[in-house]
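Researcher: Re-running this chain for the archive, since the previous output was lost when a drive failed. Same request as before.
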Amino acid sequence: MKFKLDENLGQRGFARIAGAGHDVSTVALQRLSGASDETIFRVCAEEGRALLTLDLDFSHVLRFPPERSAGIAILAAPGRMTADLLLQLLDQLLAALPAQALDKRLWIVEPGRIRIHATDTD
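Model: Regenerated C-alpha cells:
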C-alpha cells in the first residue's frame, strides 16, 4: 500500500510503515512541511497515497471527503502521544490492513479499537 506520512509522525513512523513493506513518502520529503491541510489532502489524492497523520482536523469528512482519497488514517491518543504509543497504534493499523480496506475511508486508530467511516455507497 502507498502511504504519505504527515510531518507529525517522524522517522519512527516512517521506519515502522516501510519496514512492513509499504511504499512510504512523507510531507517533509516532498517539501510540503507547513502546507495547508487542503494541499496535503489534494497531493495525497493525486498520488493515490493514504494519508497517515496525528491531525484530527482530517476527521472532518465534509472538508476532507474520504471517498475522494486513497484513505485517511488518524492515530489518536486519549492523552499525550508518546513514542511507545505511536508505535503501538501503527502496529494496530498494520495488523488491520489485511482484513479491512483503507481506500476511500477514514480510520480513527485509538488504543484497542479502530473507528471506520465509510460512505453509504460502500
